[in-house]
Amino acid sequence: MAVNQSDPSSTRVTLSQSDTAILEALVPGYTFISRIFLSYLHIDLAAYLQYFIALALFSICMRYVSEYLTQFFETYLISTAEVRLDDEIFNYIMYWWSRQPHTKHTNRFLAGVRTNGYWSDDEDSDHEESDSEDDEWEGVNGSTTAESFDDYWMRVINRDKYKKLRFTPAQGRHYFWYQGRLLMLDRRYEQTTARWVLNNEKLYLSCLGRDPSILHKLLADAQQKFVERDGGRTIIYRGQRGSSGSTFSWNRCMSRPPRPLDTVILDDTQKQGFLGDIENYLEKGTAAWYAEHGIPYRRGYLLSGPPGTGKSSLCFAVAGKLGLKIYLLNLSSRALDEDNLYSLFSELPRRCILLVEDVDTSEITHSRGPSIFPQSANSKDDDSPPKPGGNSSPDDTGKKNSKEKAEQPGITLSSLLNVLDGVAASEGRILVMTTNHPEKLDDALLRAGRIDMQIEFRLAISEDIEKLYKSIYSVSKEERTRQSSRRENGSRPPSQNGSAKNANGSIEKIGNGHAEEHKPNSVQGRRHELQTRIESLAKDFASLVPSGEFSPAEIQGYLLKHKGHPERAIREVAEWVKEEKEKKRAKKEAEAKLTNKNKS
Q: What keywords are annotated for this sequence in UniProt (predicted)?
């Protein structure tokens, strides 16, 4: 490289052909660009080449130095907590963040109206229900005319048109103060070639210093706020696939107020036996006793009976009384394979109820027919061997069944049995299966150790019918307590014109209420009179409904049609019984004709 320094104003650097070729290879188009600069701007790029190289080297060095300093700073001077989307703590943080005051002033947020794990429609429905009660109470006390249904429904429809907006932190870094400390929340969507895209979203909570105690406090506070939102409600999870191609997981679907156990229509001996057995299983020392005797710490129940007899209701009521979470599993899902089934069972907590409803609808649980081992007298007609002289031989039938089973996706009975009480089966959970046809289930599924107690539900008898009638028309304890507190506060209870609310919120007239304003004690007396009348009315109603012919759900459905008129329900029940019997008779005749047609 030769440098001409005779004239500083016209400094030019002459590069050799090899140097020019190297620059052309490193910077494509260098020769063309240098000629343009030299011709039009009279600037020789070769004269400044050394400065360009120095600047490039400095930039590269600064890049590596900044990365090193950043890594050093984050490693030794910052504490960070990583939270993944597939963990429930992600929902805790999102719920906690959405309730913080600083979220109202942030200029970067993710807005949406869709419900998910940390928001549910139950929360909004509770607010709407309380608002409706307040509106009704204000209408009773503040106006002389009640709101018509059209006006009320128009107001409800207009309110439902606007879904509640929900705000969460947008992608990127967010700085906020918590207990006097500056923290940072970083929400990232990491790009990867993994199959399950949902797991790529992560949260990073960071604070200055090597002491992460402030992060532990924040996470504990978020969990407490999330749990306190539910209160005494029963949380229900469902095993389902998050997105196409992803694995199955337990997703929170709803939370419901606990159902009182006395509202489940069942023999008190069976009801208390079921509850007592679960309490004995969950009490202190039981797990150690099972381990000492070499017995797997598991418990299984089968609730069988006709549809509408309260099998699922009993499970829900017991879960609410004991504060247990319910996990729903559908065995009929074709997308559920053996690996996903094992994954779902491994994620179950130790104290929960695993509910498998209508287990007889899944083909894998059906009886496999008689075996070489001795069995009970109950034979399975559906899976009996083919009769001699049939159109297909046993070999052909076996090949056909094997081919069909190989083509069908989903789980098998063997995998279900292994996950229930196999070597790698989870312990501590309570399995509850419901069925309308226990005779269809395979004996291996019903053996001791998998099903420890079986409760058979019945159709409603006279005693059950009386309980149903009184539960519909009796004033609930909660309503009586609310009305008593309102009277103590000096306000008039919502019982104008001699009306009283029953358990379903409907208005039941007691008598002429024109003189009620002048008789403060008449309301309480008439309520007592109503309770006395309901006792006798319930017996009259039970005498008109045949015992052991209708399910509690059928009778309850009829009573709900007359929820505000207990006497009308008694007058019209005979006609309803006659119609229902005719419908059932016609249905049986149709089924018999279809069966005879298939046999022929």
A: ATP-binding, Hydrolase, Membrane, Mitochondrion, Mitochondrion inner membrane, Nucleotide-binding, Transmembrane, Transmembrane helix
